[in-house]
Amino acid sequence: MSAETTTSAGIAQTDSTPVDPTLVGTTATKAERRGVRVPWRFIGGRVAFYVFTLWAAITINFFIPRLMKGDAVSSYMARSQGQLTPDAEKALRLLFGVDKSVPLWQQYLDYWNMLLHGNLGVSISTGMAPVGDAIASALPWTLGLVGFATVVSFLIGTALGAVIGWRRGGRLDVFIPITTFLGTIPYFWLGLIFIAIFSTTLGWFPAGHAYELGVDPGWNADFISQVLSHGALPMATIVVVSLGGWVLGMRNMMLTVLDEDYITVAQAKGMPDRRVLWRYAARNAVLPQIQSFALALGFIVSGTIVMEMVFSYPGIGLLLLNATNAKDYALMQGIFLVLVLAVLIANIIADIAYAILDPRTRQTEA
After folding, report:
1. Which residue ranges form the domains of the chain, and what is each CATH number?
2. Which residues cross the membrane (predicted)?
């Protein structure tokens, strides 16, 4: 063997002169040997951006109710029909942080002080209960129903879209117009159709609520079966309406990815179609879907207000509607704050996952 071969075989130990990188492996090979590089600079920049966004959202959340006509105390006083004294009204304004005698900047600082101590205020529409307790009682219902339905629709729609894109021009293309049409139907309209067919006519599922009256909530078979049966129609409504977007988005991305050179090379090497589909094509096509999925997860907290109205489901969306009708600004602010936090956290997680899965994103750190 020549000296060049010996050098290339033991270059790290015997020779310190520059060597052509093609003799010792590509950059991709080195990166694979090092493992996944965590893009700390990219993550730090995104976190700083989201911290600023959180401050701006909380500030807007503070000022918008105070710029609206009327407030929760005035609405409560009107419903009490003059039974409360002016002193009681002043005490309520101090309690809700809307006392006009206190400067606006002081109210803003007091609002931040309350948030930092985990105090979201008092809800006037729920019998003066703490806002945190009101949200905590409604949030699990929305997370359980809308969250599970969103995950199911994402998984089914993404997998179906990948297969349809891989077999473009085949019989599976018929699902595209069907799912797209179903996606244009409003939640409330499809929910009413499901109630008319599966509840009123067939009697398979209950028409509304989370469980029957008289059933004690708890981890028992009776209560769990009630929750599952009552949540079947709302979940089916969400899955059917949102499925079309996932299918169409994944299918379009698959059509773009399948024209890439690395797909052609993988097929030319004789790799099985299933491996090329899921390990190469779908893995790259799903990246934009992750960002959309993160946004969908963030908006789970807000629930589907119209859907919860149709099915009288005790989620966060119905709670927000009741708070809006009662001008319960403290509860509205608490729900908006939880919504903003959910969206920001979901986007941060999506950015981190995107940066880890896509090497091109990690190059922004260099």
Report:
1. 40-123 (no CATH), 135-361 (1.10.3720.10)
2. 43-64, 141-166, 187-207, 227-248, 293-314, 334-357
